[in-house]
Specification:
The protein has helices spanning about 10-30, 65-75, 85-95; strands at about 1-5, 40-45, 45, 50-55, 60-65, 85, 95-105, 110-120. It is of the alpha/beta class. The strands form 3 sheets. Strands 2-6-8-7 form a 4-stranded mixed β-sheet. A two-stranded parallel ribbon has the order 1-3. The radius of gyration is 16 Å and the shape is globular.
Length: about 120
């Protein structure tokens, strides 16, 4: 999940709510299936992105940039069932979400970086 720092609204909060909704739906789905237990890792980052339409025969919208790469790395280095973020995202969401420090994680292209888990929305 990627959220631009250029937004003027509450986009990061909408994204976090969306991630928590996905977690709830997945848990409900797993309760209602016959022996399956699907699992997901979640990663989110906030920052600038570049975007555009690529392709001529089958045009597709895409986004690129360091923010996209970090969001992807937050997912791949994460732990099943947890939403992993960096400090920049924590700074943007801590008024509405509780976080816990995970510690340093090796992130390809960045080295050892302090990461956090978003644990739940604050009431």
């Amino acid at each position: 999940a990627v959220v631009s720092t250029q937004s003027t609204g509450d986009h990061i909060f909408v994204m976090m709510d969306f991630l928590f909704d996905i977690k709830k739906v997945l848990a409900q789905f797993n309760r209602n299936t016959m022996g399956f237990e699907f699992q997901m890792k979640y990663g989110c980052h906030i920052g600038p992105v570049a975007s555009g339409v690529i392709g001529q025969s089958a045009p597709m919208f895409d986004i690129w940039g360091d923010t996209v790469n970090i969001a992807s790395r937050m997912m791949t280095t994460g732990i099943v069932g947890k939403i992993q973020v960096l400090e920049e995202t924590v700074d943007a969401i801590e008024s509405r979400y509780s976080v816990e420090k995970r510690g340093k994680v090796y992130v390809k292209g960045k080295g050892e970086i302090e990461t956090y888990f978003v644990t739940n929305p604050k009431l």
